[in-house]
Amino acid sequence: MKKLAKSVKPVKVVDGDEEESSIGTTKKLMLQTLELVQPGLIVFMIPPDLILSHVRSAVEHQARSGGQKMGLRFPKKMPVKSLYAGNGRKVSEAKALALAQTPLDGASHEFVPIGTRESFNLVCDEGLCVVHPIIEKAKGSLVTFAQTIDAPSGPLAEALIRLRQTAKQAGSFVLLFLKTDRRPNELQLTDYCDDVVVIAKCSPDPSVLSAFSTDVIGLRDLNEVGIGKMMCSVRFRNGQYTWTWSSFIAADILNRVIWKLRGSGKTFNEIGKIVKCDKSTVHRHMADLPPLVERKQKEGWLKPYADLIDIAIDSDDDSDPESKEE
């Protein structure tokens, strides 16, 4: 698969506008062939070192806007019920954060307190008794909640089966944000859910608050064409959170810079001088990166990266355009 990916002819993108290029058009057509998300259960696996609210807000925004940046096609303007365990403090905090997000016309967002403590376990018998009635009354809506888990897969598997069954019978959509350091195959999540999305931390680009990747396990065969594995960059500026989605290149900054330099037409030798390594090392880096996209960069794009990684700035280097923000 890797050799096949490297044999793909680079696609030229003028001024970095992927959405208006042939690659953007092809990608849109491919996304349109994917089935809409159906009632049921989607689990997002989030590592402990990521800020949960950054991931949850970005995903809920996609669902409420009918977005498909992750490769999951949500129905348009889906109402969302976000459940928060505890004494109400978490709900008031979530409402406050929502005020700093882009408003969405016609897509309601309700914040629901459940339980009496933050440690309330939503995937045990007690928690399921609270969650199930909410799911049963949420036909056509999205119900989201988060849970930290490090227990054996047995009790979790039973809870997931019950949640999925209830959601399908009710015609509702459930998103479970599962905070865990375990791998999907350890928990066998794909056996009990409609989709599993693996979240991983990425090093943020300049002026980015945080970044993470989303990897839809069921869409991995489409990764090399830029579908199913994305990077989300979270920004906070002018008093508002925004999310920039782009095709995943690499989790670390150095590899993303190398990939962009190569796509802008730089030779391995020229890239080596910029990132201060020999061309054979650059070649090894490129071997592990996605198929190349030829993209003309805007003037000055490389300079902000000098504050994050050790590079030699060339005044002729030109900028990475930001993807469309949502």
Question: Can you describe this structure?
Answer:
The strands form 2 sheets. A 9-stranded mixed sheet has the order 4-3-5-6-2-7-8-9-10, with helices on both faces. A two-stranded parallel ribbon has the order 1-11. It has 326 residues and is α/β, with parallel strands linked by helices. The protein has helices spanning 2-6, 22-33, 52-64, 89-98, 125-136, 153-170, 184-187, 253-263, 268-275, 279-287; strands spanning 11-13, 40-46, 80-85, 109-114, 142-148, 173-179, 195-202, 210-216, 229-237, 240-247, 293-295. It has 10 helices and 11 strands. Helix 5 (125-136) packs parallel to helix 6 (153-170) and helix 9 (268-275) packs across helix 10 (279-287). Strand 5, helix 6 (153-170) and strand 6 form a beta-alpha-beta unit. The chain is elongated. The protein folds into 2 domains: 1-33 and 252-321, no CATH class; 36-247, Rossmann fold.
What features would you highlight for this structure?
10 helices; two-stranded parallel sheet; 9-stranded mixed β-sheet; Rossmann fold; alpha/beta; 31% helix; disordered C terminus
